[in-house]
Each structure stands twice: as C-alpha cells, then as structure tokens.
Amino acid sequence: MLHASKTAAQKRVDFRAALASGELLRMPGAFNPLSAMLIEKRGFEGVYVSGAVLSAELGLPDIGLTTLTEVAQRAGQIARVTSLPALVDADTGFGEPMNVARTVQVLEDAGVAGLHLEDQVNPKRCGHLDGKEVVDEATAIKRIRAAVSARRDENFLIMARTDIRGVAGLPAAIDRARALVDAGADAIFPEAMATLEEFAAVRAAVDVPILANVTEFGKSELFTHAQLADVGVNLVIHPVSLLRLAMGAADRALSALAAAGTLEPQLPEMQTRAELYELVDYAGYDAFDGGIYTFDLANNRGA
Questions:
Q1: d(Cα 282, Cα 150) in Å, to the nearest integer?
Q2: Annotated catalytic sites, by residue?
C-alpha cells in the first residue's frame, strides 16, 4: 500500500544478487506505475523505464528532448509502486560529466536500482534508427567514470550502453565495451546487435552482465528468452512493447467508438473494474482507514 514493501536499497541488493545468479532477468518496459504493478503481478524479475516511452508519453520524438527532472519524476513514480528493481534509460546523462554525476545522484534519490548511459552524441537518436553518431572513446569513458564516482550506494548499477555497432561494426562494439568495463561499468548494453552470434561475441569479450534489447520493428530479430539465455545474455528488456500494445488497442477502440457510438463490444478486451481494484489494492486502503475510504467494493458489477 502507498509504496512498495522493499526499500530502494534492498531492491538494489536483490538486483545485484539476481544478476550474479546466472539466470536471465526479464524486464518489460513500464509506461506508467500501473503497468509496473502488472509486470510484477505477472512474475517478471524487473521493470524497465524507457526513454523512448517517456518521450512518446509527452508527445515528443526520442531525440534527447526530455529533461533529467522529467525522467527522474517518472522513474520514481514507477519505482515507488513495485518491489522489483527498476532500470532506467538515462540517455547520454543530460550533459557533460558533471551533469552525468548529478544524474546518477538524482536517480539514486528517485529509488531506481540502476541506469544506463549511452555513447551517442547529442541530439541522440533511437538506437534502431540510421544516422546515429557516437562520441569518441575518451568522451564515453569520462561519462562512465563520472557516473561511477558520483554514486553513493555501491549497489546502484551503472550500465554502459554502446551504439557503435550500427556505426562502425561489431569489432568496434567489442573494443568499446571492453573500454567501458575498464572505466568502471557494472554491465554492458550492446545496442542493435544483428544476430545471436554477435551477442555471444560480446558475452565472450567482457566479464560483466550484458543486456539484450528486444524491440519490435527494429534492427534486431525478436529473439526468444531461451535463445538469449543460451548465448549468455543476463538481462532482456522489452522497452516499448506494452506502450505499443496499449496504444494499438486504444486506437482500435476509438475507431470503433466513433463508428458505432458504443464500446460495449469491446468489454471482453478491457481490464474490469474488479481487476483494477485488485491490482491497486483498493481493499487494503479501505481496511487501513475505513473512515476515509468508504467505497463499497462488493457492488462494482465486475466491470
């Protein structure tokens, strides 16, 4: 009720332990706190907070227009409601190395379990679009060193994302990944890998956890969790999937409403009132203070 039962510190400890277990951690992307609660209910191991999703929620393209304040606020809202670790997309750190350091501490305070920083130039682009540019190795290393030096909780995960595969090929991505680990990165996010063999090559090159980004309509195939686990991937994110599904369903429903003037045929596709109340624990709030929360939960018609 109100907040997750686990503290942010405990979530970080548990996240580190889960990464060390050797099991693949599945982290669907939450587009709001309610969807994060559903991710936990369905038994996943973590929640991802996508910069692309946050941009889209604000009606903006994913080109680095969001601010640290906006990202921290949304990430904190999501982390608050779930006992799962939340990993957040921090883009390029919102500025120069000093800004990166501030980003780490602000997101620590927001309660997330970790973040990833990328090596693109500003304005950044979606990792699965053409026309990306990456910074030189020295600049990328400075970002990671600044992030590592700024954290106060040793269990807060600093992940380095590299987009160099789409610019200079796999060998360059492997070299960049090794350099970022040497700079202090706790994990590597090799963006836009084309094959399972490429993931396996990155896995063999570094001794820290690696992440796979499984996103629809992108450069990579939609590899299964079993395929990724077989080549040694430690985390898998589905960053925009739930937003795409929700927006697709909303668009179809609005078209039906405009055409028919009713949504009654769509009722079987909807989350019922009873299901929503269960997810947000209406009964728990009611029991906590019946003098304030006096709703009759028995008479909701299940709709």
A1: 39
A2: 48, 62, 89, 91, 116, 118, 126, 161, 191, 213
Backbone angles phi and psi of 29, in degrees to 5: -85, 125
Q: Is residue 18 part of a domain?
A: yes
Residue 43: give the domain boundaries: 8-239
Q: Residue 157: give its domain's CATH number.
A: 3.20.20.60
**Count: domains in the chain:** 1
Distance CA 47, CA 87 (A): 6
User: In terms of DSSP bridges, do strands 25-28 and 235-238 run parallel, antiparallel, or are they unpaired?
Assistant: parallel
Over range 164-191, report the average pLDDT: 97
Rounded to 5 degrees, φ, ψ at 177 are -60, -45
Residue 26 φ then ψ, to 5°: -100, 125
Sheet-wide strand order for 86-89 = 47-49, 86-89, 114-118, 157-162, 187-190
Per-residue pLDDT tens digits for 208-242 = 999 999 999 877 789 999 999 999 999 999 999 99
Q: Which residues of 112-138 are buried (b: 16+ CB within 10 A; e: fewer)?
A: bbbbbbbbbbeebbbbbeeebebbebe
Query: Is there a domain that residue 297 lies in?
Result: no
Confidence of residue 70 (pLDDT cuts 50, 70, 90): very high
Q: pLDDT (tens digit, 9 = 90+) per residue, 121-156? A: 976 766 556 667 999 999 999 999 999 999 999 999
Is 191 inside a domain boundary?
yes
CA dist 62 and 128 (Å) reads 11
**Position 288 in a domain:** no
Q: Residue 168 has which token pair?
A: 């200079």
Share of residues in the chain with pLDDT > 70 (%): 93
